[in-house]
Amino acid sequence: MHKSDHWLASPWRRSVLAVLAGALPVLAFPGPALWWWAWFALVPWILLARTAPGGKRAAYDGWCGGFGFVLAMHHWLLPNLHVFTFVIAALLGALWVPWGRLVHRTLGGTPSAGRVAAALVVLPSGWLLAELVRSWQGLGGPWGMLGASQWQVAPALRLASVGGVWLLSFLVVAVNVAVAVLVAVRRARVPALAGLVATAAATSAAWVWSPRPDPDGRAAIAVVQPGVVAGADSADRRFDREEQLTRRLADRDLDLIVWGESSVGFDLDDRPDLARRLAALSRETGADILVNVDARRSDKPGIYKSSVLVGPQGPTGDRYDKMRLVPFGEYVPFRSLLGWATSVGKAAGEDRRRGAEQVVMDVGDGLRIGPMVCFESAFPDMSRSLAVDGADVLVAQSSTSTFQHTWAPEQHASLAALRAAETGRPMVHATLTGVSAVYDANGARIGSWLGTDASASRVYEVPVTHGTTPYVRYGDWTVYAALGTLAAWGAAEGVRVVRLRRGRPARPGPPARTAHGSPARPGR
User: Fold this and answer.
1) Most exposed: 33, 123, 424, 507, by fewest CB within 10 Å?
2) What is the DSSP string of 10-78?
């Protein structure tokens, strides 16, 4: 036995190695943002599951790797959720159990060229299944989808306009599978190389043939980021700071001013003085102001997070109530069962209320915006829906002030590049404490970020576009194709098992015995 095989024979050592291998892809995301690393990061995990002594162990390698991936991607939650972060990682890590078994089934032993060719589509499809289930808002949403690591790569963003972030995840996994085969299965290099060529061809075709957004004027949009304001009366002092920063925008010929999530800590019906101050700011700057109210409503029971548009005469009546809430941060799932999370971390003491529908707002001069709040910018379907409904500019209001000194603010800001590229609509990501960023309709950054150390207001000249991307038109076709691939693979495997059982020779029965009790012999 080879020394490395002997070392891996220990279940505990193998589990630790699987956890570490699963954590490797996180380096492709901000802060490190080593985007190129994503195309190789899964190779150790694939090789480990491939060499598992059996399907059950490969499934466990998938679970351990999934645990490592989820924990590394959300490590910045540890100061808030403490031990519950590990519980979440263990639960979500189980989504990669089928993927581990698929790796072993398609690449284990000495796979034929046919099995390798199948692996190039089956394994990315299995990965997308895990991402699809994890994308459900109740399980935390699609934060850290593998394809999102390519947010700063122009060819990848063009692919996103065709098949969304799903297509990027599929191709990243396919390339990792091909590289693993080139490393470990030399006799099957031809299909692996074919997979790499196919990926390059798909990227080239998207670059040449996918429609590009057509420019149709410009909009001057300002972002107001007050920075960290903590302590007693923080809501009033934050409003004062935002007011000061907004006044600096007078005479800038603006189309819209955007404040961050929870920028107003009081219901404007309960605080008409704040509504009057906002209206005065709108008159001074000549632009509507999109604020975000995090407060108990006066007209409905409960606390809502709402994007509220304020014009020269006060609130215009346009209001969007956040629909997808952050688990544990804004509500506790199954509170009767998991309410103990509030005693070990900073989980929500009271559940926020959900909005009922998305809203497109008219901010004047024909400019229509589609607001989202916080991690709603991680959901491709929400930005796509706003684009379908006629939004010219996507706007996300966010606050990651709790996670100032982690990778979370930059990870969050990077998501807007993908949503812009997918929809062919520019996107503004405005935060309380950074990182704030603006992207054009191709996902390219406009101007510089407002980092977590900034307390400032900044104006961005945003190109307004029209036209429809293939992703907006056809939606999540990549996901449906992946599910179809898995269904076809499952059917083929079922047929194979049936054929094997039918072709197996009948097991001989016990030998007949003579009247004297001794076994009968042939020919006697």
Assistant:
1) 507
2) SHHHHHHHHHHHHHGGGGGSTTT--GGGGGTTTHHHHHHHHT-SSHHHHHHHHHHHHHHHHHHHTGGGH
Size of the chain, expressed as the number of residues it contains: 524
Structure tokens at 205: 């075709």
Q: Which two tokens mark 291?
A: 């604020």
- Work out the number of other CB atoms within 10 angstroms of the CB of residue 377: 23
When pLDDT is cut at 50, 70 and 90, the band that residue 1 belongs to is very low
Both structure tokens of 437: 């960023």
| 3-state SS record for 225-291 | ECCCCCCCCHHHHHHHHHHHHHHCCCCCCCCEEEECCCCECCCCCCCHHHHHHHHHHHHHHCCEEEE
Q: Which of 487, 497, 496 is nearest to 126 (CA)?
A: 487
The structure tokens listed for 26 are 């996180």
For residue 9, which amino acid is it? Answer: A
Check residue 523 and give its pLDDT: 45
Cα dihedral 356/362/367/371 (nearest 10): -30
- pLDDT the model gives residue 445: 97
**pLDDT score at 344:** 57
Q: How confident is the model over 7-13, as a mean pLDDT?
A: 74
How large is the C-alpha radius of gyration of the chain? Answer: 27
pTM: 0.90
- The whole-angstrom separation of Cα 62 and Cα 64 is 6
How is residue 173 annotated by DSSP? Answer: H
Rounded Cα distance between 418 and 379, Å, is 10
Q: Are 397 and 374 in contact (CB under 8 A)?
A: yes
Q: Residue 35 is which amino acid?
A: W
Q: Provide the pLDDT for residue 324.
A: 92
